[in-house]
Amino acid sequence: MTVEVSSLKELVEQASGTSGSPDTQEYFVNMGPQHPSTHGVLRLVLKLDGERVLRCIPVLGYIHRSIEKISEHMNYMNCVHLTDRMDYLSSIMNNWAVAKAVEEAAGIEVNDRIQYIRTIFAELERIQSHQLWWGVLGMDLGAFTPFLYGIRDREVLNDVMEETIGARLTMNYVLPGGLMADIHPNFVNRVKEFIKYFRPKLDEYDDLLTGNVIIQERLRNVGVLSAQTAVQYGATGPVLRGSGVAFDLRKDHPYGVYDQADFEVPVGTVGDSWDRYWVRVEEMRQSLRIVEQLLDNIPPGDYLVKKLNSKIKLPEGRYYSQLETARGILGVFITSDKKDEPYRLHYRSPNFNNLWCLEPMIKGDYIASLIGAMSSLDLVIPDIDR
Amino acid sequence: MDREALQAAVCQLDSSIRPLEENADRAAVVVEAAALPAILRRLRDEPEFAFAQLLDHVAVDWIDREQFELVYHLYSFKHKHFLFVSVFIPREDPRVPTVCRLYPVAEWQEREVYDLFGVLYEDHPDLRRLFLEDDWIGFPLRKDYQDDFMLDRPR
């Protein structure tokens, strides 16, 4: 059996030979790499028949940094710090995923205080990520005000997190064995203030976008992804839940202290862009609930159970650990050969698989709908390229 | 079903399936490359397993053993269990049948492995480089990959 390896150029040439309906002509349009709605460098090669999208071929690699290869020459403590450059809006959760994998492999048990703080920060970051997505979705669809509102509230939350962590975007906080630092003495009070501040703002979000007829028209029945397609195309996170599959690692395979918090998993019904929108807005409310419940119960203890040095070695074998980030499942696959560097380190990034859903979602739809559908996926391109 | 029970149940599907001993924390089995699509189809369709999603596809370059290991990471929403299916193929002529008709997401995941390891997926509808340019020479995640730009670090 032979294997043919083609190039993009050949693919485009082959596809150009076919003709559309008698009164239209099929043609290719390059969208990107620097399109304002892709939030990173993503190029889409679109095959169009009039305004209808026939094919949508994503071209990746414009910011590929080879994090997996570099990690093979780094010790485990350093590998953690590359992860927050992947999905920079889930940086703490990315850190946590690697830390969890190393801890499970090395047999380190962290105390309850660390688990509580990690969970609280992960949920705060989920809110912060969804705030930015919410504003940017409005901007992609031509409304600038939501972006200002989203950023305004995100800054308030960033101030709270900065006090403890010292950074505002690529936050390095979780380490194998614990945390970088203990929480700031003001932290608990300021988070409470933030919850009080942000609850009414969420209702304001609903007034501004959720109830807006134009936004509804541009999201409803656009980019429909059935539950079956979502599963087959590897979607996770809000994209999968928007299609009606109630799967959330926080509920189904709890880690941290999620099993001690009471919260719901919002699930869509139709699987259109609107459902994905609604799921994320609802998730912000649920995250506030989780943080509120955990905040008063942070147990006393040390913030670092074991000071690991850079020479930490894992026993030989394969280790897998995964975590629900703001965009879906981040999986960390470590193969160790008893050295202090991983033999092979692989990240299963949520955006990589979610982007693959774009073509089945948008096939046959208008090119103008592509923007809303792509926005509802909440892509972070560096996470795809790694 | 716990890890051992699942592993034993999967091994009973076919006599060529054997458990992967080296694995540390998940149920894992090894299958032959030629039997891979048939076995994955049964794992997906039989209600006892119902592995609906291919979460991840990873390759490992075992240069000392002159083998590539391809890991298919499956998840079942119905039973909430995970399974690793490994395939070992020779490093000399790395070929394996594609599974992208069973799991469409594999089309991309296999392209990534082709791009970085040079594994050829037979019957893949659109095998192209995913991250690198079409005319890139070599496969960067192989252990013996040499590049002018790579940091020359003593190991």
Helices and strands in order:
The complex is a heterodimer of chains A (386) and B (155).
Chain A: H1 8-16, E1 26-31, E2 43-49, E3 52-59, H2 67-71, H3 76-83, H4 91-106, H5 112-140, H6 145-165, E4 174-175, E5 178-179, H7 187-210, H8 213-219, H9 227-232, H10 238-242, H11 249-252, H12 273-295, E6 317-325, E7 328-336, E8 344-348, H13 350-356, H14 358-362, H15 367-377, H16 381-385
Antiparallel strand pairs in A: 1-2, 2-3, 4-5, 6-7, 7-8
Chain B: H1 3-11, E1 18-19, E2 28-31, H2 36-45, E3 53-62, E4 67-76, E5 81-90, E6 95-97, H3 106-117, E7 120-122
Protein name (chain B): NADH-quinone oxidoreductase subunit C 1
Domain NADH:ubiquinone oxidoreductase 30kDa subunit (chain B): 29-146
EC number (chain B): 1.6.5.11
Report on this structure:
The complex is a heterodimer of chains A (386) and B (155). Chain A has 386 residues and is α+β, with helices and mostly antiparallel strands. Chain A folds into two domains: 8-59, no CATH class; 67-384, Cytochrome-c3 Hydrogenase, chain B, CATH 1.10.645.10. In chain A, 48% of the residues lie in helices and 12% in strands. In chain A, strands 1-2-3 form a three-stranded antiparallel β-sheet. A three-stranded antiparallel β-sheet of chain A has the order 6-7-8. Chain A has a two-stranded antiparallel ribbon with strand order 4-5. Chain A is globular. In chain A, 48% of the residues are buried. Chain B is of the alpha/beta class. Helix content of chain B is 20%, strand content 27%. Chain B is built from three helices and seven strands; from the N terminus they run H-E-E-H-E-E-E-E-H-E. Chain B has helices at 3-11, 36-45, 106-117, and strands at residues 18-19, 28-31, 53-62, 67-76, 81-90, 95-97, 120-122. Chain B has a five-stranded mixed β-sheet, covered by helices on one side. In chain B, strands 6-7 form a two-stranded parallel ribbon. Chain B is globular and about 50 Å long. Classes of the chains: A alpha+beta (386), B alpha/beta (155). Chains A and B meet through helix 1, strand 6, strand 7, strand 8 and helix 13 of A and strand 3, helix 3 and strand 7 of B.
